[in-house]
Specification:
Pathogenesis-related Protein p14a; eight-stranded antiparallel sheet; four-stranded antiparallel sheet; about 30% strand
Length: about 475
């Protein structure tokens, strides 16, 4: 009987293991087609083609300096003009469609209890029931640390003799020094003074005022921070906002309680399937008296016009101009375009570095690969007709284009992205990895084509994996 029970347990564990493995293994590959239909060409079924990832199209009601935190839902980093993270904001949608924003701190562990009445001070209880206190310190360069404090929030440290200047004391101005901890984070300021007996002593002091009055004003005046709509809502009518041609009717209304509401009407255009569509969107943002975003609400976008898409010369896509071979077609569309070859190589290096850390082989990119021809032509098409659509107005889907040029592949994938022309290789690689739904980190691919076309202040990026 005991042997039967053991045998049954082994069989049950094996069954559950197989079931869990199958549940976690996707039945659809990264290119979006069913591998079981191996008898048909991968591009034959239009309904299984990849679609644009609308999750990564940032809502215009989200301020431009709010950057999504990868892997987190509705959590954003607030970045200032110097590229430093000043805060984290989380938003939650209400029943009426309004989004309510609040400042959060994702770096605080779950077992850290807020100490009422003290700013950024937390109580921590260990497994033995012993309690200790820590203060959360964020430095000017966005590094952070928890430093030990007493129950009143005073930093616990040994004050050195006034005759010595410790290595972690760095002079700021006069006799005022910044005190760094072992993580190179500023945890306070000390002033070195002479007592009545002529001996040097150290005493706590506040951070010294910056000499540059303008810099000081911008860092201390809440109305000048990077979130303030009074600065961000100033719009140049000749510049594009997202895909916008212009934005107008921006109106600010002050309320008696000190809060104010900004209403902005955005006119934007998109190109899809050979059509140029114009939309209108109304964004309403509410701020407190210091310019901190409290809530946002978006109405639209509503379609207000639709016309055939055209290139810079005012011409709509003419499929009759497509050349017979892919090399000839690349030569035709590449005239006058600015390809960021070095940036594309740097993006590839970032991707391969992450693949190496995951134990995967490097992806190969060569200008003579079909993947490279496809990526360059499709990025060029995005730039010419100003779109970011997987269904190109000239070539259609990737599957249709491969069929046009007699290209076959068992496992193709495409990632495309239109973004501002100031992104670094690291930022581009990070976003592409998330948009790829793990295709960039898959062992199924060995060859890649990355093309980045710079035009009118934007990067038009297309990635082909085979």
């Amino acid at each position: 009987m005991k042997k039967i029970v053991i045998l049954f347990s082994v069989l049950l564990i094996t069954f559950m293991g197989v079931w869990v493995f199958k549940a976690k293994t996707p039945s659809v590959k990264s290119d979006g087609f069913d591998q079981s239909a191996a008898s048909n060409a991968w591009w034959a079924d239009e309904k299984n083609l990849p679609k644009a990832d609308v999750e990564w199209i940032l809502d215009p009601e989200i301020p431009e300096n709010y950057i999504p935190v990868p892997g987190e839902k509705e959590l954003y980093m607030v970045v200032d003009d110097n590229g430093l993270i000043t805060a984290y904001r989380h938003r939650e949608q209400q029943e009426d469609g309004t989004w309510i924003w609040e400042t959060v701190n994702p770096d605080i562990p779950d077992n850290y209890e807020v100490v009422e009445g003290l700013i950024d001070v937390y109580k921590v209880t260990n497994e033995k029931g012993e309690t200790s206190y820590f203060k959360y310190i964020r430095n000017d360069d966005d590094t952070f640390a928890f430093v030990p404090v007493d129950e009143n929030g005073n930093v616990i440290e040994k004050t050195p003799s006034g005759t010595d200047i410790p290595d972690n004391y760095k002079r700021i101005t006069g006799n005022i020094y910044a005190v760094y901890n072992e993580n190179n984070v500023i945890i306070g300021y000390k002033e070195r003074t002479l007592d009545a007996n002529g001996n040097y002593t150290w005493k706590d002091c506040d951070k010294p005022q910056q000499n540059d009055a303008e810099t000081s004003s911008s860092s201390e005046n809440p109305s000048n921070n990077s979130e303030s709509p009074m600065e961000s809502s100033v719009i140049d009518e000749n510049s594009e906002i997202s895909n916008s041609e212009n934005a107008d009717n921006s109106q600010v209304i002050q309320h008696p309680n000190g809060t104010y509401t900004e209403t902005e009407t955005i006119i934007s255009t998109e190109t899809s399937g050979g059509w140029r569509i114009t939309y209108q969107t109304v964004i309403t943002r509410t701020y407190d008296s210091h310019g901190l975003l409290l809530s946002t609400k978006k109405e639209g976008p509503y379609e207000i016009s639709k016309e055939k898409a055209t290139d810079d010369d005012g011409k709509a896509p003419d499929k009759s101009k497509i050349k017979g071979t892919i090399r000839e077609e690349l030569a035709r569309v590449s005239v006058g375009l600015n390809y960021k070859e070095e940036l594309a190589q740097a993006v590839l290096a970032e991707i391969n570095a992450e693949r190496a850390s995951a134990g995967l082989g490097s992806l190969t990119m060569n200008s003579n690969f079909e993947a490279m021809y496809l990526a360059k032509i499709r990025a060029s098409d995005m730039a010419i007709y100003n779109h970011s659509d997987y269904d190109s107005p000239m070539y259609g889907s990737l599957a249709t284009m491969c069929e046009t040029f007699n290209i076959t592949s068992t496992n193709p994938s495409e990632i495309l992205w239109k973004t501002s022309g100031d992104k670094t290789a690291t930022a581009i690689a990070s976003r592409l990895k998330i948009m790829s739904n793990d295709a960039l980190m898959s062992s199924d691919h060995s060859t890649i084509g990355i093309s980045i076309v710079a035009k009118n202040g934007y990067y038009y990026i297309d990635v082909i994996l085979v």
